[in-house]
Amino acid sequence: MLQLVIHGGAGSLEGKTAEAQNIHQSLCRIWEETFELLKKKTAEEAVIHGIRLLEDDPVFNAGTGSKLQADGEVRMSAALMDGVKNRFSGVINVQNIRFPIEAAALLSKEKNKVLSADQATEFCRKHGFDEHDPVTPARLQEYEQKCSGIHGTVGIVALDKKGSIIAGTSTGGIGHEIPGRVSDSPTVAGTYASSKAGVSCTGVGEQITQQAAAAKIVTRVEDGMSLHEAVSKTLMESNNFNYSFGLISLDANGQIEVGKTAALGEVYYAYHNGEGIETFYN
Ligand code: ASP
Question: Is the CB of residue 171 below 6 angstroms from any atom belonging to ligand 1?
């Protein structure tokens, strides 16, 4: 069975109806294009392709359109996890490349699988990644007006016909963070998968990390809990701390669970509910 769920981050609409419509349209378009690829190729290829599309769409806080850190620089992070191969790779605070997920994918073939900061950027240059300025006028304005919010990120979890589960996440961070801050996204708290389930998180990275959210949900499914129970229990525990985050997930049977803690406004997600593509916004 094929299955695909994508997210465009946690966020608060705050009356921005036009932006909500844009996010909805982008998520539907990207879900469809990615699902077409998943029919022909592997979950890994579909996740990388889909995240590239999300990274290139300036409406999302990843790749082009990433938020700026406190010193006015964009630093991006991304991770990829192959559930069957038990292989996690990622880049942390990489700069001036177009597709951070491509760097994570490249690192999955290396002995050392997670690189950070200047060395991550150097690794990308050495492997032919062109210089790319991810700053958009809208993000620059947000930065200057100190109104970049606290959320963003994109992610995809896919199940292919061979039963491979891949989770991927890419983020520009939370905006105005201390330069060099590490988010949950390029860690197993934000991106994790096994042969039984896969999860990608979005929301306040520190809180996701403190809960080890993605890894915990996958471990619970490994230990026999249903995905529904594993997600509910993990979110309930996080509600006890009033944490603010959301997630997308799927299991080896193709069951999808999308969830969020009570404190979070909404998660921008997309999946096919059997009748059509469901997103946060209809
Ligand atoms: N989790 C991301 C971070 O903390 C932001 C988000 O997903 O909203 O950097």
Answer: yes
Please give the number of the atom of ligand 1 that sits closest to the Cα of 173: 9
Greatest CA separation for the chain: 49
Q: Which two tokens stand for residue 195?
A: 């042969």
Site to probe by mutation for ligand 1, drawn from 151, 176, 199 as the one with most ligand atoms within 8 Å of Cβ, is 151
Q: Do residues 221 and 196 touch, judged by C-beta distance below 8 A?
A: yes
Atom 4 in ligand 1: which residue has the minimum CA distance?
205
Q: Is the CB of 182 under 6 A from ligand 1?
A: no
CA distance 186 to 106: 14
How much is the pTM?
0.96
- Looking at residue 267, what is its pLDDT? 87
Active site residues: 153
Q: Encode pLDDT of 21-54 as tens digits.
A: 888 899 999 999 999 999 999 999 999 999 999 9
CA distances 230 to 213, 269, 279, Å, are: 10, 19, 22
> Could you tell me the distance, in angstroms and rounded to a whole number, from the CA of residue 153 to the centre of ligand 1?
6
Nearest to 94 by CA among 56, 62, 142, 139: 62
Atom of ligand 1 lying closest to residue 150 CA: 8
Task: Measure Cα distances from 62 to 78, 171, 276 in Å.
Answer: 9, 4, 26
Domains and CATH numbers, the chain: 3-279 (3.60.20.30)
Handedness of CA 194, 78, 145, 58 (dihedral sign): negative
CA–CA dist 116, 107 (Å, integer): 11
